[in-house]
Amino acid sequence: MSQRKTVIFVADSLDNAHKFQSVLSSLDVDVAAGSSVQFKKLLAQHPGYDLVIFEARNDALESVAKVEQMLVEDGQAALLVIVDLDRLSDFRLPVQMKSDFVINGATAEECSARIRQLLWPGNESSTNDFLTVDNMSINLATYQVKVNGEPLDLTYLEYALLSFLVTHPGRTYSRDALLRRVWGFDYYGGSRTVDVHVRRVRAKLGPELAQRLETVRGVGYLWNM
After folding, report:
1. How far apart are CA 95 and CA 84, in angstroms?
2. Starting at the edge strand that comes first in sequence, how are the strands of the sheet with 136-139 ordered?
3. Is the pLDDT of residue 142 over 60?
4. Burial 36-48, CB ≥16 within 10 A → b, else e
5. Cβ distance 170 to 224 under 8 Å?
6. Spatial contact of 137 and 166, defined as CB atoms under 8 Å apart
7. Which helix (H) or strand (E) covers residue 162, if one does?
């Protein structure tokens, strides 16, 4: 069991607010969220916080420097910065604390992985990180899938597709929706790549588990629990 953590989330865009609300709700954390103008108030109201997730937009360099200064004064909290792709050439991570970044528009799976690494480095996992379906187990913290105790050799995208569908059972997702949720908003390939990955995942799961990954004709795919 991992110790429950406290996360302060600061963003001014609704897209990131919605995505990270979903990501954080699946982790063993308490969350205090607000806009950038509420940042100092959030820090004061939640002493002992473990992680700050901060959305840095056009003034990324200046704003992250200010955040770094405040967090260093407060203690040993980690920092995850959300940064726009076109600001990466100028962007530098803080060096006085444990920190990481994600590109604005990154998949929920990548955001979750970055958060877990900052909060629970190594192999510490919460009980929410383990899923079991029949003879298959999925460790969401370490990206490991086992069937009958034997690890499956999955690519990252095969794993991401499988884990997304398994964690959203009984709901049909179109190919375009899966591209957005698994591949990310910056993927420009054709939607048929989803079909290719579904076939590969089914082949590796074996016939019994593969039956759960259903094709909904004319719509997309679902995981049937």
Report:
1. 20
2. 130-133, 136-139, 144-147, 150-151
3. yes
4. beebeebbeeeee
5. yes
6. no
7. helix 156-166
The single residue listed with the structure tokens 């103008």 is: 37
Q: Quick one: average pLDDT of 52-78? A: 83
CA dist., res. 127 & res. 139, Å (int): 10
Residue 6: in which H helix or E strand, if any?
A: strand 5-10
Helices (H) and strands (E) in the chain, counts: 8, 12
- Long-range contacts of residues 65-74, Cβ cutoff 8 Å, at least 24 apart: 65/94, 67/39, 67/94, 68/94, 68/96, 68/97, 70/39, 70/40, 70/43, 71/97, 72/96, 72/97, 74/43, 74/47, 74/49
Place of tokens 């970044």: 101
**What is the pTM (predicted TM-score) of this model?**
0.55
Q: What is the pLDDT of residue 53?
A: 96
Instruction: Supply the DSSP symbol for 115.
Output: H
- How far apart, in whole angstroms, are the C-alpha atoms of residue 47 and residue 70? 12
Q: 143 or 42: whose pLDDT is higher?
A: 42
Output the CA torsion 215→184→196→136 (10° steps): -70
Q: What digits encode the pLDDT tens for the residues 179-192?
A: 877 877 555 667 78
Q: Answer whether residue 27 shows pLDDT above 90.
A: no
148: region left, alpha or beta (phi > 0 left; psi from -120 to 50 alpha): left
- Answer yes or no: are the C-beta atoms of 182 and 157 closer than 8 Å: yes
